[in-house]
Amino acid sequence: MPDLDQQLEFGVFPTPAATRIPELLGLVQVAEVEGLDLVSVQDHPYQDGFLDTWTLLSVLGARTTTIRLAPNVASLPLRPPVVLAKAAASLDLLTDGRVELGLGAGAFWDGVVAAGGPRRTPGEAVDALAEAVELIRAFWAGGTLRFRGEHYQAQGLHAGPAPAHDIPVWLGAYKPRMLRLTGRVADAWVPSMGYADPPDLPALAAVVDEAALAAGRPPGAVRRIYNITGRFGTGGGFLRGTPAQWAEQLAELTLTVGMSSYVLGTDDADVVRRFAAEVAPATRELVEAERARRATARQETPAGAATTSQEAPAGAATTSQETPTGTARTSQEAPTGVVLPGRADEGRGSGRHTVEPTPDDGRRLSPTMPWDEPSRPVAPDGAPGPHPEQAQHLKDIHDGLRGELAQVRDVLDQVRRGHLTVGAARSVVNTMTMRQNNWTLGAYCESYCRIVTGHHTLEDRSVFPHLRRAEPGLEAVLDRLEEEHVVIHDVLEQFDRALVRLVAEDGTGRAGEEVLQGVQSSLDLLTDTLLSHLAYEERELVGPLSRHGLS
To answer: What is the Cα–Cα distance from 496 to 499, expressed in whole angstroms?
Structure first.
């Protein structure tokens, strides 16, 4: 089955190791801050090194606000369906409808039996799973529940509570009977790399699709979730290359097989950041562009003409092993030939640059600045160059930093409003909520500080040396910009120290408000220095970048 036109989603699949709890909790916070859609956890109650899945999901639900939660997949032989249905509905209510339920028929039967569960044949396992799906959904519907199956029963049970939303049921399936069951009753199919690698997916998906159609369901009613693993690098193979290559390979799976949700197994927070910031948006862009192209082609195709619904995305590799011939444009890259509205007649050699620097409005939140702004050097005049897109690229990056800074300030404002509630109520529940907010703020700001530092490092090591060689008259300006990078780094460290204290302190009452005021003051100084610096850099480098490019 080709592209099912399902919405793309991205998630993370961390190891529930009992020995790495702080790292695990921090990784999930990073996943939420970076915008991933889903965190899922494997379920092996007989594994002595793993945390209990539902207990962990409950803690994660309490510490997050947007990311969805799911077992991937629950071990049905050790999770009675009624208890499982009640646990899922309860957590769904507690998290405002963020729960999905992955179910597995059972595996590692020696471990299941050692934990007191039944040993089932493959046929029995599939039959039990089919019963469980029916019983769980009946429980969620509420009322008096009577169910008599070969493996599970309910005798006049008063079912409830109902979940906050219709909880999607995933099934992990590889064999024909399980795949057919998935097509008939599941909301999602969730295979994993290692058990079903990319070349295997089309044939497996076809069984799901046929079963769905036979049951009167469109194949698109079954979401396609793929548990993936990989590493970033320059090698060949599936998910072994650059983020752009990852994006092309995942886009190809979406457009030719119908996979739509990608859940990355990793315990590395930096990998999570790259997956969320680079792979996910690039994959979405490739898929959206190809879907738009196909829609246009269908409209233009004469009646009765053949269509090619399984074409690979433009610029994507035609197999998962090939080196790509094109790469995705990232969200920070500007189209070539940027000309601001109303300036289309001002081309090369007009004496005016086609990219306008962002002006500094002169407003300051801090009483003093760590540098003397009037003494900043000025770049020599020069004609517009042939690379306005490079100057626009710098401005786009800066606009992203400005937007992120505004979000950091908004998050702090929300935390401060939460502190006022905590200080007034002094309740344990509110204090716990407040500390959750503190941790969320810390994770968000850690990510932002890393972005700013990475941008400055790239400039110092690559962009500025190139401009020094290309235009020696810029030396004083570039020296000053590098000096300001050092100052901003110190301001970021001051901000980080304030955040560490915020997370470590009790945070209630007058003492908590004093700590928050320290965070606010350091954030105000960061706002003043960064916005001033970005405006100065654009004002002085728009012309040189348009003449010489970024490298």
So the answer is: 5
